[in-house]
Amino acid sequence: MRLIDGLISLSPDITGGRGRLPLRGLRGVTMIERASAGITSSIITLAAIILLTAISAPAQTRETRQLTSNNIIALAGSGDTVWLATERGLNYRTSIHSQEGWPGFEENDFGERFRGLAFGGGSAAALVYKKDAVNTIGFWRFNHADGKRREEFFRFSNDVLYDDCEGCSYSPQADPTGHIVYARENFWASFNRGGIVRYNPADNTLHAMRPGDSAEVHPQNIAPIDAGDSARIVTGLGVSADGNLLLIATPSTYWTYDPEIRVWAEIDTIPPDPVYSAIDSTDFRLMLAAAGDVANPEINDKLFLPQTDSAGTLVIATTTGLYICESANPLAGVYGDFTLIRYVREVKANEAYALPGIIRGGADDRYGKAVFVYKLKKDGNVTINVYDYRMSLVKTVVKSERRSAVSERSTVPARDFWDGTNRSGRKVSPGVYYFKITSTGGERHFGKVILAK
């Protein structure tokens, strides 16, 4: 939940993975206007996604104790709880400081169906399209109190879903905007000309309305509106800092709505969120690169969990893993070290490899270094040397540093890497290079890494 000068809290950016339709969240007036202007560009992409979802084989849901994917597309949470939506499912942790695994639920087509994530009242809710059901969408919810999952789906009428014109077919006029928030013990999501849909987790019921409505109806019964009625087309949805008021953005008007007394009121503008303004203006590339083996991670979403008035934990979702900074003060521009969390397959005994196996120094230096992955039988001091094809020493990248033996792998990504340079810091010639990992416990591991042009 975001605090905006004690008034507004907007949901974080919701972005699809590579090759998928991005559903951008809204921050401030400029982003709301952009979202409104960009609605029509998604018609073909979304229609294709819905069609593929309808004809694909049924997805299998299974519980897991590890990240469902390293491509993390959305974040939600509050306090010490964080939820992740990945391209293959959902994961959570009730203590971000814990070193335990990430419980979750994996589905092979989850990324294609996912449209938003929120957390509140001890529950997480994801907005997802139903498997094998065209234009049917709803809420998937997990309750931490009883550990149970529930789903409730709906479908707008054809009059709302389709343009009323000769030769017209599917229209994005009732597509989700990617905004889902928690307020007044309910989850709320916005759907452009489909209005706002409220999901009540207490009785698993759905209710729909548009700005200015005095009563709610079932989403199936909400009446179509004219495309020119811009004050009632919902392009963004937020919640006040105290969780009592909804903020609704339309192409022409901003509204507040009090669910308790069902009163709408127009407002002039949306004040910026100073914390997220500071976060969004910060270049995290060097900080994230120091925590992992990707020089320039592609960021999908950011979530700030305040612990005090100005400090807290910053969580950053990328296409290659989750980065966590437990000592962040965005307004002061102060950030501690980031920790990279991601799923890495278990390394077998006596196995060692470079990840990636080929170093490519592109324009963004994304694959500009390789991390050495290995597994120790017991704790010890480790040395890692890199040699050329004549077995002449090129560089000692780690010299007698302590490493632990763990069940997954023993490696420190921030240090156990080679960036293609020699002892003088100069780039070496392209070719095949060999590495040797030794420990004071008597273990030896060998492998190779290729430096491309």
What does this structure look like?
- With about 450 residues, the protein is mainly beta.
- Helix content is about 10%, strand content about 40%.
- The protein has 6 helices and 31 strands.
- The protein has a 5-stranded antiparallel beta sheet, with no helix packed on it. Strands 2-6-5-4-3 form a 5-stranded antiparallel beta sheet, with no helix packed on it. Strands 19, 20, 21, 22 and 23 form a 5-stranded antiparallel beta sheet that branches.
- The N terminus is likely disordered.
Question: What is this structure's SSE topology?
Answer:
Blueprint: E1 8-10, H1 28-37, H2 43-55, E2 62-64, E3 72-78, E4 81-86, E5 89-93, E6 104-106, H3 110-113, E7 114-120, E8 123-129, E9 137-143, E10 148-154, H4 158-161, E11 180-183, E12 186-190, E13 196-200, E14 205-209, E15 236-240, E16 246-249, E17 254-258, E18 263-267, H5 274-280, H6 285-289, E19 299-306, E20 312-318, E21 321-329, E22 334-335, E23 339-341, E24 352-355, E25 358-359, E26 370-374, E27 380-387, E28 393-403, E29 417-418, E30 431-439, E31 444-451
Parallel strand pairs: 25-31
Antiparallel strand pairs: 1-15, 2-6, 3-4, 4-5, 5-6, 7-8, 8-9, 9-10, 11-12, 12-13, 13-14, 15-16, 16-17, 17-18, 19-20, 20-21, 21-22, 21-23, 24-26, 26-29, 27-28, 27-30, 30-31
Task: List the main descriptive attributes of the protein structure presented here.
453 residues, mainly beta, five-stranded antiparallel sheet, disordered N terminus
